[in-house]
Amino acid sequence: MTLPYVLVLVADPAQGTLSKDAIDIARNMVKGKNPVVLSAGEAVEIPCPTPAPGAPTIATIRATLARHKVDTLLVKTRGRRKAVLVADMDSTILDGETLDEVAIALGIGDEVVKLTEASMNGRLDFEESLRARVALLEGKSAACLEDVWQNTKLNAGARTLVQTMHAHNARTALVSGGFTYFTSRAAEACGFDEHYGNEFDIVDGVFTGKLVGPVLGPNSKEEHLTRLLEERGVKASAALTTGDGTNDLPMLAVAGLGIAYKGKPKVRQMIDMQVNHSTLRAHLFAQGYPASVFVD
C-alpha cells in the first residue's frame, strides 16, 4: 500500500554525502518505511504516514538534521509531479543579484546593495526599493550590462531542473523582479518556455534612471502563476514555485509546492518547504524524480 507522504532528504554532493545516520534519524522521526534511493549519496525518499498529532513538525525535523547539512521536504505522495514551474531569477536561478552587480560595475554598489537587502528581507516596499535603485543609475553607461552577464553563473542544478520538468510536459516560466536583459539570457540558458521581468529605460546607451512600463513585483509573480495554471487547466496544487525573497512570498504561498530556495530569514519563517543546503536538483527529488531521468 502506498503511504500518503514521503520525506525527501537531500544533501549537496559538493559538501558531503548523505549519511546513513541522517537517514536513520529522519526515518525514526516520521515512523517511515525503508528509504528509496533517488541519487546515491545525494537523495532518498522515505514513505511515511500522515503526521499524527504531536508528531515532529517539518521544522523540527529540519532543525534536527541541520548539523548534517541535509534538506528535508515532506510532501504528499499524490500529485507530486507538477505541471507548472514558476521560478525567481536573482539568487535562485542565478548566483547573485544582477542589479547589484550592475551597480558594483558602475561604482555605486554599496548604496544599491543596501536597498536590495532591505527589500528582499521585507523592510522596504519592493516597488519603492526598485525605483530608488534604478534612479541611482541615471546618467551612467549601460555598456556594463554584457560584462555583468558574462560574469554571472547559473546556480547548480538550474538547467537540470528546467529541462527535466520541460521533458515531462511541464510549462516553465522565469518571473523576476529583475530585468529582461538578464531574464532573456537566463531563460535561454536554462530552457524556460517564458520569461518576464522589468525593463531599464536606456537612451543612447545611457541609463535614464527610470523604468519602462509598470513594475513587475510580488503581485505580478502570483498573477503570472495564476495565468499559467488557467492556461494549463490545472489547480494551484499542480504548481511548483521557487524563490528566495519576500517578493516571492505570494507565489510561494499559493503553489502546491512552494520552495524557499536559500531564502531570506523572513521567507524561511513563513514557508515550510525549504532548500537551505543542497542544489536546485532538490526540487526534482521533491517531485519524486530519480537522478536517472534527469535531463541536462
From TrEMBL:
Pathway: Amino-acid biosynthesis; L-serine biosynthesis; L-serine from 3-phospho-D-glycerate: step 3/3. Its EC number is 3.1.3.3. It is an enzyme of class 3 (hydrolase). Its cofactor is Mg(2+). It catalyses: O-phospho-L-serine + H2O = L-serine + phosphate; O-phospho-D-serine + H2O = D-serine + phosphate. InterPro entries: HAD-like_SerB (IPR050582), HAD-like_sf (IPR036412), HAD_sf (IPR023214), PSP (IPR004469). GO terms for molecular function: hydrolase activity. This is Phosphoserine phosphatase. It comes from Asaia lannensis NBRC 102526. The gene is serB.
